Predict the structure of PUA domain-containing protein.
Amino acid sequence: RFSPSTDIASQTRLKSSVQRSIRTALATQFPLLGENDGVLLEQIWPKKEALVHVKCREHVSVYTLNGEPLFFQHFDGPYYPTLRLLHKYPDLLPHVQIDRGAIRFLLAGANMMCPGFTSAGGRLPPASSALPSGTPVAIHCEGKDHAVGMGITKMSTEEMKTINKGVGVEITTYIGDDLWPLEKL
């Protein structure tokens, strides 16, 4: 379990040059944030506000604004929005959907297998907008409105449809994990 008193190594206010590079990386990684001269990014993270870098156990970095976690990162990997931020701005990440049978496994922290996406209740993007391997995605559940998890594709969505076995999405965060209950750090 995540405990801020024992699992946070340090909190550092970022220099403006580092903040600019993070803004650029976010706008590149999430095209929606870069649209319209970054209006959405400005809503989420105003330029005048300082971002705080919270270093946690196992090389996880959480970026907070006024104590509210906005994004996190493992080592120097891609940035991920927190689930709370994803619920406010649901189009930040591409969507995939699992069937009802996979929900309990997701909420237990298991990686999502291909059959959960290809069965009757699952949904993957059409071939015209297929996602490559290594793409961060929002995981929705059959019959639910909001994303219940996030992960990174381990194979392309077209490979998931044809191979239909093995891990399709490696989970990074889900409702009920250690990051979910943190509204303020």
In short: Strands lie at 8-13, 52-56, 60-65, 68-74, 80-81, 95-98, 112-113, 136-141, 149-153, 167-174. DSSP finds seven helices and ten strands in the chain. Residues 2 and 115 are 31 Å apart (CA to CA).
